[in-house]
Amino acid sequence: MGDGVSRRGFLLRAGALGCSAAASPFVTPMSFAAAPWDNRLVVIILRGAMDGLDAVRPWGDRDFAAARPGLAATRDSALDLDGYFGLHPALADLMPLWRAGELAAVQAVSTPYRDKRSHFDGQDLLEAGGMSLEGGMKDGWLNRMLQGVPGITAQTTYAIGQENMILTSGAAPVSNWSPDVDLSLSAQGLRLLDLTMQDDPVLAAAMAEAVLLADSDGDAVVAEDEAGMMASMQGGATGRRKGHLRIADFAALQLRDAARIASFSIGGWDTHVNQTNTLTRPLQRLAEVLLRLKDGVGAEVWGKTTVVAMTEFGRTVRENGTRGTDHGTGGAMLLAGGAVRGGRVFGAWPGLAEAALYDRRDLMPTSDVRAWAAWAMRGAFGIEKSRLEGMVFPGLDMGDDPGLLL
Asked: How far apart are the first and last CA of the chain?
């Protein structure tokens, strides 16, 4: 293999394409162009409507405890953010990010979606980025941002996971990768790889890393010689890594190299029943993903990274009869990364008095979640405001710069 193809460049192709024969790196020409920016953006869709009032708890609002007698836990000074808001205990591992100024929240946000409260429609509108679903928008706001940007390739942006994300669908090239890609090979296939890579230790190491990403428990190291690599490919590693951590590891690997944008989803946020238990696990997964990303990209890249975690809508202010919450309107989003001006809760807080609620049941939205995403992209990539308001998010008024990024 020529000097122009890096070890990580080979892995990029092997992981994204699943090492299928039709798209094998042995028969497919590879070309790697310089990325158009140096900063990174990660967009995480929290599918199922995260309860922002539980994730980022408004302890300072006197109506909070009355609306949620079973869910509004007492103030925990260890999780206090700013004297008014505090984190859910499942996000406790993120407190060092908060103290370092690498974590922020935005309260009382929503898309323009109102009243019907359908997960499917809410997620579609969140990813499409328009004012409504009328007119049949087929592409997503992240793809529209990429359209017309010079220098991008399919390796600039990765959509990671099993689902087909509207967010990244469109005319701009985007690579896709799933943690469930099967890299298992027959004995004949292993022998073919053995023969192909026997004179190229760089290629051998890259293939070993691709297999470990797909099949290892995350603790194994890349084999240093060909024999060790082949043993790993035959199942030498033990167990399988948790899916959300495999996604985070793959995203970090690409962001350290040519990729500048990664997007994926975390599910499990629909908490109609027994929310105290059901919300804990997705919050833990989110915390684990953010910390894994930070560790995976390294300090230099993390300092250039913005992570935006957003959900289709919030949940009702009052808890229901089954100790959960129902579909609502206003919610919260989280931002992380070394490029974020963290250590603060952004957004205008409307209060939880009944008269201040939307439809007397939901947190009143005071800003458009699309505006915060737009400012993150403008800060990270310098996209013109007029383009963000006109093409990327049609109908959006971004308002004044909130100072999200450093």
From this structure: 41
* Cα-based angle 46, 265, 105 (whole degrees, multiple of 5): 40
Whether residue 280 is predicted with pLDDT greater than 70 in this model: the reply is yes
In a domain, 404, yes or no: no
Q: Are strands 86-87 and 56-57 parallel, antiparallel or unpaired?
A: antiparallel
pLDDT value, residue 219 = 33
CA atoms within 13 A on the CB side of 154: 11
Look at residue 187 in the predicted model and tell me its pLDDT.
57
- 285-294 exposure pattern, b = at least 16 Cβ within 10 A, e = fewer: bbbbbbbbbb
Cβ atoms 313, 117 nearer than 8 A? yes
Residue 233 lies in a domain: no
DSSP secondary-structure letter at 273?
Answer: S
Tell me if 7 is assigned to some domain: no
Number of independent structural domains in the chain = 1
Residue 232 falls inside a structural domain: no
Residues constituting the chain = 406
Backbone angles phi, psi at 139, to 5 degrees: -110, 170
Domain housing 272? 35-174+245-392
Q: How far apart are CA 186 and CA 184, in angstroms?
A: 7
Nearest-angstrom CA–CA distance, 180 and 161 = 8
pTM recorded for the entire structure = 0.81
Nearest alpha carbon to residue 280 among 190, 288, 363: 288
> Can you tell me the distance from the alpha carbon of 390 to that of 28, in angstroms, rounded to the nearest whole number?
38
What pLDDT score was predicted for residue 194? 60
Of 273, 281, 275, which Cα lies nearest the Cα of 244?
281
Q: Report whether pLDDT(401) > 50.
A: yes
Q: Which one-letter DSSP state was computed for residue 64?
A: H
**Rounded to the nearest 5 degrees, what angle is found at the Cα of 140, between the Cα atoms of 182 and 34?**
70
Q: What is the CATH number of the domain that holds 165?
A: 3.40.720
Q: How far apart are CA 287 and CA 284, in angstroms?
A: 5
Specify whether the CB–CB gap between 220 and 149 falls below 8 A: no
Q: What are phi and psi of 344, to 5 degrees?
A: -155, 155
In the structure, what pLDDT confidence band is assigned to residue 137 with cuts at 50, 70 and 90?
confident
In 3-state terms, what secondary structure has residue 203? helix
The neighbouring-strand residues paired with 405 are 340
Q: In the chain, what percentage of residues exceed pLDDT 90?
A: 70
